[in-house]
Specification:
This protein has 12 helices and 7 strands. The protein is α/β, with parallel strands linked by helices. The chain starts with a helix and ends with a helix.
């Protein structure tokens, strides 16, 4: 019996050691991110993947002025091939992001990735009712690109080209009943992203480019502590508006939440000085809101 007990204790010790070998910690200012790997079989090695988590966390920290939560976990699963294949954020008192990374992914492939930034952005916004998923996902779509552009991870041209190409998918279609009541993929992700772009532009227009959506979201994070608790949507948007001294977000919500009101993307591009010629994006710095366009992607 004594031998069996000793053997069991030794096996448990080996298991714990193996688990520690598959775990790393990333510190971003006062925040701690535990990185857990389901496998050590990655071409780059676990230290390089851990460093990538740190770089992505830094992008999010710089956008919000702090990393959204004091502690979080990132669970990395090995997938075949290369690239980042998908991720999901699980909200709780101990936030978790699960993400799949191809075994043969390169450093360049990791630096091209948007998924982990997208999922980390979810940590900065409080939980809201399911019918408002379009705002949660739309924010992550829009802010991911802005944050990466501000960090120099993508160029402003790449950022705006992506929006011009993809945002039309978010416009209301036949039978649409507004963002709170139409839960198609396009309306949830890109309809929400258009809402965020429109809010950013309007805030900058009304504050002479002194404030933007980034200020609104920093205010929300400061007041709510991120996604560890659920908040009513009206209260969240009121906090966001208070941070910019405007009523932009609540007004846009009232206009688009229950009614299929189109956004005029062409007018937005024209005001911002975004011109599409032969499939390429050019910038017109004489446009009325050219300074706002530059302000959105400028490091804050």
């Amino acid at each position: 019996l004594r031998l069996l007990v000793l053997f069991a204790a030794g096996a448990a010790s080996c298991s714990s050691a193996a688990q520690r070998d598959l775990e790393r910690t990333v510190t971003v200012d006062d925040s701690s991110i535990t990185v857990r790997f389901a496998s050590a079989d990655f071409a780059l090695g676990l230290d390089e993947l851990t460093a990538w988590v740190g770089r992505r966390a830094g992008i999010v920290r710089d956008y919000y002025g702090r990393f959204p939560v004091s502690a979080a976990s990132v669970r990395i699963r090995r997938a075949s091939g290369a690239g980042v294949h998908g991720g999901r954020e699980f909200s709780s008192a101990a936030p978790l992001i699960a993400i799949s990374v191809g075994r043969d992914t390169t450093r360049a492939g990791l630096d091209d990735d948007w998924v982990l930034v997208h999922e980390m952005i979810h940590l900065a916004f409080p939980e809201v009712a399911e019918q408002h998923a379009w705002l949660v996902e739309g924010l992550a779509v829009y802010v991911e690109g802005v944050a990466r552009a501000q960090a120099g991870n993508i160029t402003p041209t790449e950022f705006w080209s992506g929006l011009v190409a993809d945002m039309p998918q978010g416009e209301p279609g036949a039978g649409d009943q507004g963002l709170d009541h139409t839960h198609s993929w396009g309306r949830t992700y890109w309809g929400g992203a258009i809402f965020c772009l429109q809010a950013d532009v309007l805030i900058r227009e009304r504050t002479a480019n002194r404030k933007g959506l980034q200020d609104a979201l920093r205010g929300v994070l400061l007041a709510t502590g991120g996604n560890t608790h659920e908040w009513p949507i009206a209260k969240v948007l009121a906090l966001a508006d208070a941070a910019t001294g405007t009523d932009v977000l609540l007004t846009l919500y009232r206009e688009h939440s229950a009614v299929a009101k189109p956004f005029d993307l062409r007018a937005i591009w024209r005001k911002l000085g975004i011109v599409e010629r032969a499939g390429r994006i050019e910038f017109d710095d004489t446009a009325p809101l050219a300074a706002a366009r530059r302000g959105i992607t400028a490091k804050n």
